Amino acid sequence: MENAFRSGILAVLALIFISSSFANASDSPFIVAHKRVALKKLNPIVERISVSIDVYNRGSATAYDVTLADDSWAQDVFDSVIGNTSMSWGRLDAGSLVSHSFEFESKVKTVYYGAPALITYRVPTKSGLQEAYSTPTLPLKILSDSDTGKKIEKLKRLQSSAPPAFHHHRNQTLTAVRSKMITIPYLTALTTYFSYGLLFVFGQLRDFFRRIIDLWSHSSLQGYAPICLGLEDFYIRRLYLRIQDCFNRPISSPPDAWFDVVERVSKDNNKTLQRTKNVSRCLNLGSYNYLGFAAADEYCTPRVIESLKRFSPSTCSSRVDGGTTTLHTELEERVASFVGKPAAVVFGMGYVTNSAILPVLIGKGGLIISDSLNHNSIVNGARGSGATVRVFQHNTPSHLEKVLREQIADGQPRTHRPWKKIIIVVEGIYSMEGELCKLPEIVAVCKKYKAYVYLDEAHSIGAVGKTGRGVCELLGVDTAEVDVMMGTFTKSFGSCGGYIAGSKELIQYLKYTCPAHLYATSVSPPAAQQIISSIKVILGEDGSSRGAQKLAGIRENSNFFRSELQKMGFEVLGDNDSPVMPIMLYNPSKIPAFSRECLKRNVAVVTVAFPATPLLLARARICISAAHTRKDLIKALEVISSVGDLVGVKYFPAEPNKQQLEEGRVKME
Ligand SMILES: Cc1ncc(COP(=O)(O)O)c(C=O)c1O
Questions:
Q1: Residue 555 is part of a domain; what is its CATH number?
Q2: ∠ CA 598-603-606 to the nearest 5 degrees?
Q3: Engineered SS bond to 609: which of 89, 308, 533, 618, CB 3.0-4.6 Å?
């Protein structure tokens, strides 16, 4: 009875795994199939398992080796593995098939479907040398002999002599990573580490003396642990507070091309800051007001005011209760058609869109592979989902493929069962780097391995693409290839909230299950109206060409500003067409110096440092808007150039301008 039950389970498992094992066949020069030959119970707790593996050479390899790949894992699952887990090298002529058997004994756990086998193989190179590669570990599948035979026959028909994909990708990875590396000048790296080291040592000394004084004066809380603990607290008290005047600057006007920054003073060495009644009118290089909709707009603003009168600032209800107004349904239809998906759902906050949706889409037994520089909302959503999270090198499709292959081969932690679902999460434009996602390549990798693509277009929707439809339009990717399209309304649309667009089935599912839809108050009606109206302007449905002008404006402004900064000798990250452009500062002392000197000259910039960036990579992040005039941009460039000279952040030799070249020529003559 027990045996019959077990055979039933094995048969079901065989059916489940037979299909997935085909996936491995396409790239390796070998086609490998496993079959369980025998399972013998030696005593109540020990079983002997005999496994045979069929290896079929598709033609491009010359030698191979078979091992039970991960002994430590096998130990874990089987408790004890007895017997040889390795097999020797052998020659296998193109187009031929051999079978290998190996045997091991294990304490019974009835988990046979995960044991991995690793095929190491050699291929000839152009120079005649042999190079060794490994297939990803292939999960052991329990198949009946007839299944395996049929499968090999089918795979033989698919015979291909294409060279193995690994070789190609390995080289690609190296070049891609090399070209992406930020090269920090040696001296800058040294002084940056030295500065942080000095701040750290002084901070620790001050904390040490503070603790002694506290003990003396009995001022510490008796019996309680400090409520703020750890490095973050130390970082805030001893490093951040020194330069806190560069952050959280109060603003007293809309975030237009120019805005009013409230002046503050400190009487206690920057520990606290008091607002004054003075404001300085500054050129705004920090807001995400890419299309200029954040300030009063002749088309949007009257309609927003009207919606405020007709509805109210808040629906005071969640979507499923009384929070779905006619504006919300119109907004979702407009967003879906704007981004090119069948349906969409909107949320009150972009951050929440990521952090609440990921846990609904995936959970335990699932795998999220996330770009290493993804936004914090994605990081928190991924963590909160309970799925396994792996990271791939920023914007490097070849590394994504490597991670995917390894993870597919390894399967879930401990059990090594296949992943229930795999989601790859990337951004359209990376908010700290200004870099465009390599979406076509990433989508190709995802399709190959049947992983879902989740694209966060917070900074790209509305800002790039011929009609503002984001990176898919800009890079020529069919939106049907992107499974989950996420974006926010806080940038190009001058409003607030976020959206998820996808298939009708997905959106319906999210509406039934996502807590941010079920339990959070819906998007404020005037904010929804602002998004509807700005989309209408972008698409020219307001009867004017302002939308097209704005799109052309943001592109021209961004490319002009970026190229001028580069000519001046700044190290500017990011790609052409991206309105986000970080200027590298590196050294912690240069962060406040750059920010304060710009503000003195009425240019407001945002500076970003650790923990938002890696320790060495502090930067000023410039955000360009279609609302900036050429005169604004020239003023900004003049100020940034003189501050750059003063602070010493022009890390590259400046390109001589035409006039200087002429002068040089005259002098030489
Ligand atoms: C990539 C990315 N995703 C999500 C968000 C969160 O969006 P919001 O600020 O609209 O809440 C941001 C914020 O800047 C972002 O940069």
A1: 3.90.1150.10
A2: 75
A3: 618
493 with 560, same domain?
A: no
Of 538, 550, 638, nearest to 285 by C-alpha is 638
Q: Are residues 387 and 403 in the same domain?
A: yes
Both 593 and 467 in a single domain?
Answer: no
Ligand 1 atom at shortest distance from the alpha carbon of 489 = 10
Give the model confidence (pLDDT) of 331-359 as tens digits.
999 999 999 999 999 999 999 999 999 99
Residues with a CB atom less than 6 Å from ligand 1: 349-351, 354, 375, 377, 427, 431, 456, 458-459, 488, 490, 498
Residue type, 270: N
Distance CA 184, CA 312 (A): 52
Q: Which residues contact 529 (CB under 8 A, 6 or more apart)?
A: 300, 303, 304, 306, 307, 327
Q: Using CA positions, which residue lies closest to atom 6 of ligand 1?
A: 351
Question: What is the domain extent for residue 612?
Answer: 546-660
Total domains in the fold of the chain? 3
| Residue 134 CA, ligand 1 centroid: distance in Å | 40
Inter-residue contact 92 to 68 (CB < 8 Å) = no
Question: Is there a domain that residue 511 lies in?
Answer: yes
Q: Facing residues of 371 across strands? A: 392
Cβ atoms of 306 and 297 within 8 Å: the answer is: no
Closest C-alpha to ligand 1, atom 16: 431
Shared domain check, 39 and 130:
yes
Give residue 457 CA to ligand 1 midpoint distance, Å.
9
State whether 564 and 635 are in the same domain. yes
- Indicate whether 534 and 598 sit together in one domain: no
Residue nearest to atom 3 of ligand 1 (CA): 458
Number of H helices, E strands in the chain: 20, 21
Question: From the CA of 500, how far away is ligand 1's center (Å)?
Answer: 13
Cα separation, 456 vs 389, in Å, equals 17
Question: Which stretch of 105-114, 196-205, 441-450 has the lowest confidence by average pLDDT?
Answer: 105-114
619 with 562, same domain: the answer is: yes
Q: Hey, which of 347, 488, 580 would you mutate to test ligand 1's pocket, going by the most ligand atoms within 8 Å of its Cβ? A: 488
Cα 485 to ligand 1 centre (Å): 14
- Can you tell me which atom of ligand 1 is nearest the CA of 488? 10
**Is the domain of 436 the same as that of 577?**
no
> Distance from the CA of 612 to the center of ligand 1, in angstroms?
13
How confident is the model over 197-218, as pLDDT tens digits?
999 999 999 989 988 887 777 6
The pLDDT of residue 362 is: 97
Ligand 1 mean position, distance from CA 351 (Å): 5
Domain end point (choices 104, 135, 163): 163
